[in-house]
Amino acid sequence: MRFLLIGGAGYVGSHCGRHLIARGHQVEVLDDLSTGHRAAAQGPLHHLDVRDTDAVTRVLQRGFDGVMHFAALALVGESSTQPLRYWDVNVGGTLSLLLAMRRAGCERLVFSSSAAVYGDAGDAPITESSALRPVNPYGRTKLAAEQLIEDAGAEGLRAFRLRYFNAAGAAPDGSLGEAHRHETHLIPLALRAAADGGALRVFGADYPTPDGSCVRDYVHVDDLARAHALALEALAAGHRGGALNLGTGAGASVLEVLRVAEAVSGAPIARRSEARREGDPPSLVASPARAALELGWSARYTLEDAVRHAWAWHSAPRFP
Ligand code: UDP
Fold it and tell me: Is the pTM of this model over 0.90?
């Protein structure tokens, strides 16, 4: 089958492209390269902004069996200081894509959503029927985009909304990895600190968690990619879609991640205790049971695997 990956030059999108190709599918990428990398795109690149509805329609009219939509701004902290930009790109971009898909007669979508739609959900594993109470603009834009997609079901759209917990790691063969121009994520920053001897800032020491630092569910990017491929294939086979959590079901605190990063890199990581980061809920851990039921998917890689693959990528990245 032939799929269009909106935002396919970014971190999760490029890994999904690689995975789809390995499964025998064809991939084209539509990306404005605002945060993605040309070298990461896994197929012909349409260098466009998803908000350009007419141009996206023309690309879709070439004929695709489905669309994956990754293009978004995705930094919790930044969303708190630039909320309108987040609404414009994340919600405006999704609306533009849905209009283009309707015009082009394209009815299958896999959407990158986020655990941020749940907000502060407590420390129990989060199910898809947990309350949706996002605590930052990023999460609110993802929830609004999900609602748009649900409403578009009345006009024939079938979609999976995949709620990622914390994407982590790199391709096991070292061919792809995380390469944000302005890095804010824990694992790459921890590995950078291990490599250059700098300190890692730990945001918050007084959360209601076992060691006081935030707990997250780190899921390997290749596991995410496999879930996306399964989701598109299920839609093509007639599945109606829905919302699915993608996580491992196990949480790790910031301090635990640092210990894993030290073990993998063999270097000590200095910590600097800082105030809480705006918009961070204390704990986000998935119940991945529904994804297992609907797609037969569960994570195969561990946090250690993700950090090991990220360390290999960090040591020799292929693109800046
Ligand atoms: N974090 C941290 N120091 C950093 C970067 C992140 O303590 O330099 C914490 C952050 O507060 C959060 C967790 O690590 O609790 C994961 O953050 P990240 O930005 O990687 O992902 P997010 O959960 O925001 O999607």
Answer: yes
The closest residue, in CA terms, to atom 24 on ligand 1 is 76
Out of 73, 76, 138, 216, mutate this one to test ligand 1's pocket (max ligand atoms within 8 Å of CB): namely 216
Is residue 191 pLDDT above 70, yes or no? yes
Q: Give tens-digit pLDDT for 306-315.
A: 999 999 999 8
Distance 99 CA to ligand 1 centre (A): 34
Q: Summarize pLDDT for 199-248 with one digit per residue, the tens.
A: 999 999 999 999 999 999 999 999 999 999 999 999 999 999 999 999 99
Q: How far is the CA of 247 from the centre of ligand 1 (A)?
A: 16
CB distance 234 to 296 below 8 Å: no
Please give the pLDDT value at position 182: 87
Query: Which one is catalytic: 118, 138, 164, 207?
Result: 138
pLDDT mean over 266-275: 97
Residue 86 annotated among the catalytic residues of the structure: no
What pLDDT is attached to residue 278? 86
pLDDT at 44 over 90: yes
* CA–CA distance, 1 with 24 (Å, rounded to integer): 8
pLDDT at residue 320, as a whole number: 60
Report residues whose beta carbon is within 6 angstroms of any ligand 1 atom: 76, 166, 184-186, 189, 200-203, 214, 216, 254, 277, 280
Protein residue closest via CA to atom 11 of ligand 1: 203
